[in-house]
Amino acid sequence: HPGDLARRKAKLKTIRDNIVARIKNKPYASFINRSNIVFVDNSVSGSNASQDPIVHVKMFRGQLFKAMYSDKKMEEAIPICWLPFTYAMRLLAEEVSSPVVPTAEVRMIAKEVCHLEDDKDVDAVLEFYHNLGHILHFTDNAALQENVVINVEWLVKVVSVLLVPGSVRVDTDHDQVRQEEYQLLIEKGILLERLAQHIWGKNCPKLAEHLTSTEERTFLFNLMEQHAILVDASKLSVCIPRTVIKHNERMYWVPALAAKEVTAADDDKALSKPSHSSNTSFLRLSTAVYIHLQDKNQLPRSLFW
């Protein structure tokens, strides 16, 4: 009936206006084509081609594929048999107590759920899902290649909590040593391994439950070192109170925490005459980066990677 059709069009317009109003001030609004919203109305009959919901579904599917394939990263074709791997990793993350799993176990699961026999095919699956960010498997480092991170969100949270010390909770009351450890982190960017354990336990106790074993902690610290989130502080001659450091304890320099604001005069002085002998200057002026190239005629290609 014409009246029903008019009311339906008015209703769809109201819905469209509400959708546009809700998203217009969102950060992602610029990525949405608000003039081309497709409605799939399942309440109409399929007798009229212009009202057929199947036609609308096809229109929506066409626009979806167009948007997807506009990103060159979406053009990679993969075997259908690879798809169950994501679901298998999700199940594994729910079953095991650790977000870090031996590579051998992940490879075995990949062979089973993806019906793979060749080890090169398994390598391709792990590399593909690593590039997507579903898992993390670093094959270029002997200390990391024997494990796979199957819960990437866990990794992001436990690493990020160390990089924002002003927002973390640390028990320093009635504990002079703990207070000195925390001051060392705030003022010089030096992180003791036991303080990291304390920060994780106080700020994300559920996540810290997965850091009880030495193997998991070692893997995590190696990973942060490999990606320059942490630097082995034993290679730096930093003055640390004797009451804080223990024999053979691992400590790290956190570059993200060492940067401090300096005056223009100090900055100019540092740039014209870099101090390699003063530990304080090195940490205080860590916002300035000095690169010494032995071959002055050529920049290393890895500098741009």
Percent of residues in helices: 40-55%
The Cα radius of gyration reads 28 Å
Instruction: Quickly count the helices.
Output: 13
Distance between the termini: 64 Å
The total of beta strands comes to 5
Principal-axes shape call: extended
State the low-pLDDT regions, or none: 260-288
Side by side, the strands of the main sheet go: 3-5-4
Question: Strand pairing plus helix content: what structural class?
Answer: mainly alpha
Largest sheet: 3 strands, antiparallel
Average pLDDT reading: 75
Can you walk through the features of this model?
The chain has about 300 residues and is mostly helical. Helix content is about 50%, strand content about 5%. It has 13 helices and five strands. It starts with a helix and ends in a 21-residue tail after the last helix. About 10% of the residues have low confidence.
Please outline the helices and strands.
Elements: H1 2-23, H2 53-69, H3 84-95, E1 100-102, H4 103-113, H5 119-132, E2 147-149, H6 152-160, H7 176-188, E3 190-192, H8 193-203, H9 205-208, H10 214-226, E4 231-232, E5 251-253, H11 255-258, H12 264-272, H13 279-284
Antiparallel strand pairs: 1-2, 3-5, 4-5
